[in-house]
Design a protein that fits this description.
This protein is of the alpha/beta class and 195 residues long. 44% of the residues lie in helices and 16% in strands. The chain is built from ten helices and seven strands. Helix 8 links the parallel strand 6 and strand 7.
Length: 195
């Protein structure tokens, strides 16, 4: 998961995607590769003292860095670990490639929370994964920025799977507001009957 700009909600989308896959019974890992502004540990209220960078530095083995989420037993977490001074070097290393190869054998899905596409880190990661999803904040994202992000990723050979439109206001959109109200109205009527 990446975005054209910071604060578009890519971490939230990454977490929701990982949880959804885990709820199907699949073994899922969410890996925080945003070594500039990591957020996974904050969302799950866990320490970020040990994580990906510890492994990439050769300080810890993989198993000691995987954390289980109590509410979703099929979901494993690997935080970013301490932030390095050279994130691109870490993510472009042979150790990163080898780590992903090992993890692919143990998980059905690996969801990577990446920095925005404007950073070299995202381009590096995009060449190591099966596909990239670009998260766009509908309130402040622009088509130009999304096209630029997509082009930048495709130039390095990334397979862009698609775009997730985040923070969409369905009620204010003319197309969706005319499409969804019948469903919303029925749901409100059902809730009123139950009350």
């Amino acid at each position: 998961m990446t975005s054209a700009h910071p604060s578009e909600g890519k971490t939230t989308i990454a977490i929701n995607t990982a949880v959804t896959f885990a709820q199907t019974g699949a073994q899922v890992l969410i890996l925080d590769c945003d070594l500039r502004r990591p957020q996974i540990h904050s969302h799950f209220k866990i320490s970020n003292s040990d994580g990906l960078t510890n492994y990439l530095s050769g300080l810890q083995d993989i198993d000691s860095l995987l954390r289980t989420h109590n509410e979703y037993p099929n979901l494993k977490l690997m935080t970013s670990g301490p932030m390095p001074t050279n994130p691109s070097d870490f993510l472009g290393s042979d150790e990163m490639y080898n780590l992903l190869e090992v993890l692919k054998r143990n998980f059905a899905h690996i969801i990577i929370d990446s920095p925005p596409a404007s950073f070299t880190d995202a381009s590096i990661l995009s060449t190591l994964v099966d596909g990239v999803v670009i998260v766009v904040n509908s309130k402040r994202g622009s088509r130009v920025a999304v096209k630029r992000a997509k082009q930048r990723l495709q130039e390095v050979g990334a397979h862009v799977l698609g775009v997730v439109l985040n923070y969409a206001d369905i009620e204010s959109d003319q197309y969706y507001s005319s499409y969804y109200p019948p469903y919303q109205k029925n749901e409100n009527q059902e809730a009123a009957k139950e009350a």
